[in-house]
């Protein structure tokens, strides 16, 4: 059976989720050679490293590192740089994941945009349409948010007890072990 990558829209029962594109066999306009792979690993570990320090570690000049990073940014391999914030240090007591079933993803997107508690929103397949990750101050805060979100559809909530892995180093897909090809 031959599967061809194409753009499709599918409607799932219970929600109007759109899958805009299937990325089978997507190729990059940029070769990720060993230098680029090492640069990516270093930047993911510490995005504040200077081009000079990265160059020292990968055996390239600072201008060569800067050019490679610029190329990876332009190709979309590097999508940005950000600080990692400890939510507990800025007043949040806990996090939850909320699975939702909604009739309107646009309404959910608008709701999420109006609530700073939303740390991430993922459209999903399966029984639920989306998963939200929320940072909250208290159980009463959770109840308030769930009551508001409940107006859009059905929810199912799981509280995060601890996180073992969050900021995992991303490696190019061709380096994954045990991945089906």
Automatic annotation (TrEMBL):
Record keywords: DNA-binding, Transcription, Transcription regulation
Q: What is this protein called?
A: Lrp/AsnC family transcriptional regulator
Q: Where is the HTH asnC-type domain?
A: 32-93
* PROSITE patterns, per the entry: HTH_ASNC_2
Q: Which residues cross the membrane?
A: none
Carries keyword DNA-binding? yes
